[in-house]
Structure formats: C-alpha cells, structure tokens
Amino acid sequence: MNEYLVDVRNERLSFFTPAGEVKALNDVSLFVRQGEVLGIVGESGSGKSVTAYSLMGLTAHPGRLVGGDLYFNGHHINEMKERDMRKMRGNEVSIIFQDPMTSLNPVYTIGNQIVEVILLHTDKNRQQAHERARELLQLVGINEPDKRLKQYPHELSGGMRQRVMIAIALACEPKLLLADEPTTALDVTIQAQILELMMDLKKKLGMSIIIITHDLGVVAGMCDRIAVMYAGKVVECGTTDEIFYHPSHEYTKGLLQSIPNLNEREHKRLVPIEGMPVDMLNPPKGCPFAPRCGSCMKICLKQMPDYTQLSDTHYSACWLLDKAKFESQGDVQA
Amino acid sequence: MMEDKKLIEVQHLKQYFPVNGEKLFEKKVVKAVDDVSFYINKGETLGLVGESGCGKTTAGRTLLRLYEPTGGKIIYDGTDITHVNMLPYRRKMQIVFQDPYASLDPRMTVGDIVGEAIDIHHLAANKNERRDRIVELLSLVGLNTEHANRYPHEFSGGQRQRVGIARALAVNPEFIVCDEPISALDVSIQAQVVNMFEELQERMGLTYLFIAHNLSVVKHISNRIGVMYLGKLVELADSYELTFNSVHPYTRSLISAIPVADPETSRNTQRIVLEGDVPSPVNPPSGCRFRTRCPYADERCAAEEPKFKEISSGHFAACHHLDRVK
C-alpha cells in the first residue's frame, strides 16, 4: 500500500507543559525508503529526536500526537495498540541512544541484556539465544565475546558499550535502525570506528537507518538524503549532494558557513548565524527562522512558507525562493 | 600583533593524581600530565587537542596553578611562578570553562558574577565605577546593561558562555585558558563565540591556550597546535603544518577520523581507522604510549620512550618511526 518503509505525513506533536503548549513538531513530513540512510540535522530542541521516538510510539509524557499520520512497515502507528507496539519495538525497528552508559542496565550482564531481546522476539531457547548473542558480539567487532557476555556495562569502555547497544539493536535484524546522536558522547577515533561499523552492517543486513545528529560531517559521509529541521519543522530536505552543494534554505546555508573547514588553507572568518535558537514556548509567527535570517522579508514574519519543489528529491520551505514575486509586490527586505 | 616573545612557558610539567587501585587499599597514581613542555608567545593562540582523558584540561589548569604541579616549572613573563603566591597573577591569567551551566553561580546575578573579580582585585574605586565597568564588560561580549540584573538560568547556553568570558575579562588579563569553551554550545552558536574570541584577541592583544577536542575549530583559531595522547605531547607545530604535514601516526589518524562536512571529500578519502580504545592512564603502556594502537609499532616502541624532538623548524614530534610513517 505504500512504497516507503517509513512515511510520516503532517505529524503534529505537542508537549502540554504547565507553562503552556510546546509545539515540538509542527507539520513534519518525512519518508525513508528500504535500505536508505536518512540524516536528520538540527539544533537541540528542533524536534529531531522527538520525530524518531514517535515512530516507535515512545513519546514521553506530557507529549501527545495531535495530528498527522505515521506509517512504518505497513503499520499505521497512530492506531496501534500498546501490545502490538511492543512486538514491533526491538523486532522491526530499534534504536541506539547517545549515551551508552545510561541506556544499558548497570545491574545485568551484557549477555543477559542481549539474550533478553532474542527470547522476547523469537522462539529460540535460552541456549540458542546465547549462541546468537555470541554471534552478534562478533558481528559488531568485539573480541573475546565469551568473556564480554559475562561482564557488566561498567567494565566496558564507551566505544565498546556503543557496540553492545548496536548488537542489541540488531539482534532481530530490524528493518529500521534509529540512531539518536550515536557518536556524540564518543571520541573522534572511536566515532570513526562506530560509523564505519554502522555502514558495514547496513551493507550486510540491508536495513534502513535514520541518523540524528548535529554534526554535518557525520551526515556528509553516511547519508543518502538529509532533512534539516528547525523549530519543529523540516525546513529543507534533499539528497546529501543537494543539501551540501545547493542549499536553498537560509538556515541550511548558515549552518554550512558557520563550521570551520579543516582542509582550508587560509584563515577566513566564520560567518555565524546571528541571534539565538527559538523559544519553543513562544515561537514567532510566520517562518520560525525569520528573526535570525539575514534576508528576511515582510511576508516571512507573517506567514509560514509552503514547500517549493526544487528537484524530484529536493524541497525547501522559504519565501526567498519566490523572491521575485514579492519584490514586484513591493515587499522590501525588512 | 604577534611578537616572538614568550609570555608563558612550561618545562617538564608533571601532574600526578593519587587514585585507588583495583585491590582494597591499593594506591596508584594517574600521570595525567607527564613531562610536557611548551611555550606560548605573546598575542598567540596555542591549541591543545586530544581525546578525553589525554590530560589537556589538566595541563591548562596546572598551568594556572589551579592544581599544584607534581613537577616541572611554570614561567610567566620571565618569572618562575611554580611556587609563588598566585593572587597578583590571577589578574593576568584567567580561564573560561567548558560548561556554562555549571561554571556560573546560580544565586548570583550576572552583574555580581562579573563584578566579583573587580571587588577582589579592588579595580573600582566606588559603586558607580564598578557598575560602569560591568556594563562595559557586558557590552564587550555582546550583552546589554539590563542583563546585569538577571540570573544565569534566564540565559541560553551561548549567552552564559558570554558571561563566563566577561568574567574572565573583568581583570584585564593578558592570558586566558579557554577550556573547551564551545563544545557545550549549539552549532549555530559556536561560530558566534569563536568569532568573539578572535575579535577580543585583536582588540586587547590577548594570548590564548585554546583546549578542545574538535580539531577543525582548534585549527581555525590557533597559530600553533599541540596534540596530546595519554598525558604526553606527541606532536606540536604551526596549525597549517600540523593539519597538512603531520608526521606522528596518532595525529594522522586523528585528522583522518574527523568527519569532513563535504560529501565529495568524504566519499573519496580512505580513513585510517584506529583499532581499540585509549588505554587507561593508570596503567599506560611501556615505552611509547601510543604503541598499542599504532600500525607502525615494534619492539623498540615497547622498550624505549621516544624523545620529543624538533624535526623541522618549530615542528616537534615524538616517534621512533618518523621515516616510515606515510
């Protein structure tokens, strides 16, 4: 019924806090094809993690889905019962988190935690599950798996723990792996190992990956397509090359200009994005990026722009793409 | 602006910390910084990079005598300050911390946080003068007068880091240790703060020790860069020399591990992926500390510690196999 593995349509999700409604996701649409790697890039609070969690039905209180449709692998997430959801999680879709120390249970051995997933989702017996756990540790490049299975999380290093997390996530060969800042807590040399491992496993197992990060370097090397989020909206989406070489949204352009390039041979001043991230309790009217945008027009402060399709794969929500039209109407730069 | 005059120099700096061993009552030492020597010229920025636990932060703090050094010498502007009363030097040497959420007292207004240093060093004759100075400092870092009466929790991360910088500038220092000052900030805010550091340096002739794990940022802001691994300086050179002509196998793998924000480049480059993890600093490997992860390691590396020597003008490295490293 649907050619996409993941299809999010006009998702709206709000957190009903004592201070008021926070519209964490405001009309988010995304899709992921089979075997594709999608990167979601954005600042803290832009809604990138919330989008991923809602796909697994893991929206934390006081958050609630208030609109839109989420489809994953033939399931209509909105209408799923918690029981079915539990069958799906860890089996068809699984997640790895930023901090592998807090996402592993400190009082169970590594072996216990991997075996648990396998017993829960397959009809293997304990011995077979244990054998599978061994295989998985080898798959993620952990030496001496028999010794590691008996160890507790605190006995492992950060990179090792993240490998264990990946082993747990892949235990049932899911169709989709959500990676929420999987390498942010790790050192660069370890980050390189983990990213390499993820791409390797993707090739072997053919799953789709959604990788959430704020590091443009990570997405440049890994992703087929990239969605840029700002203040609960996908402001631009396209293939990796389109985003990096033909960015069309002012926020994307700003992000790309504000990071120093290691390969540059002369010193250039960075071009920062001025201003501060949006206060999500009182988001501005119109385009959320307008207050920080260097080429803001009057219309930007009044109305949220629709998507402009720039190619089959590339779309962006910015009034400047229609600039000529507004200039003819006398909308000078504000 | 830059003169070839050493403002600060450390010689064979050592900083050991006692820790509990694995067995009950067993005592061990962590050699957080072990025999590190470098100098920083007036008006210059020296970058210090390395992975977590390599001792870069400890080096920065020991330099300011926030820790009492276990061994070695710290020389500031020609004077040995390893064992002197630091109060007069606190006016000249300041620090900006990594976490702007933890380094500001939540019960003090921003005005008082910035003003505290002015009080301690008696830099203002009366209340009006003190207030004027605070306003001046806040505007220097891009904040307004009204911000002085607010508390840290009312600010965003980027603004708090600005307060931290204003506090460091309050005493008109000559030298500032910037300890991971941007790693807790959002990407779009990092560039603002980096540019501010550069502008302040140009305007006030400041000297920086810029500590960070992000080599791209360090290269951007520094004149020279030192690379640390497990408490040792393994390579030190001009920042372009270091990024494009590095000679130490660790520096090379570190540079190659950095994800480049350019799809074309990252598709076409072959990464050197290091095996394994950083060993524990309680039990560092014998000889060269990098040998357990180094593709070039042999028996000599295990037996003998390589000397930190000058290989070309201003370019230092510690490795036995410099001729073999490609």
From TrEMBL, chain A:
Subcellular location: Cell membrane
A single MF term (Gene Ontology): ATP hydrolysis activity
Membrane disposition: Peripheral membrane protein
Keyword presence, Transferase: no
GO cellular component: plasma membrane
One Pfam family this sequence matches: oligo_HPY
Domain ABC transporter: 8-256
CDD domains for the chain: ABC_NikE_OppD_transporters (cd03257)
Keyword entries, A-Z: ATP-binding, Cell membrane, Membrane, Nucleotide-binding, Transport
GO terms classed as biological process: peptide transport
PANTHER family attached to this UniProt entry: DIPEPTIDE TRANSPORT ATP-BINDING PROTEIN DPPD, OLIGOPEPTIDE TRANSPORT ATP-BINDING PROTEIN APPD
Membership in a protein family: Belongs to the ABC transporter superfamily.
Listed NCBIfam families: oligo_HPY
Name of the protein this chain belongs to: Oligopeptide transport system ATP-binding protein
UniProtKB/TrEMBL annotation, chain B:
Keywords recorded for this protein, A-Z: ATP-binding, Nucleotide-binding, Transport
GO biological process terms held by the UniProt record: peptide transport; transmembrane transport
Signal sequence interval, chain numbering: none
Single annotated GO MF: ATP hydrolysis activity
Xref: Pfam families: ABC_tran (PF00005), oligo_HPY (PF08352)
Coiled-coil ranges from the UniProt annotation: none
Gene3D superfamilies assigned: P-loop containing nucleotide triphosphate hydrolases (3.40.50.300)
CDD domains assigned to the protein according to its UniProt record, in alphabetical order: ABC_NikE_OppD_transporters
Boundaries of every ABC transporter domain copy: 8-255
Family: Belongs to the ABC transporter superfamily.
Name of the protein this chain belongs to: Oligopeptide transport system ATP-binding protein
Species this chain originates from: Acetanaerobacterium elongatum
Source taxonomy: Bacteria, Bacillati, Bacillota, Clostridia, Eubacteriales
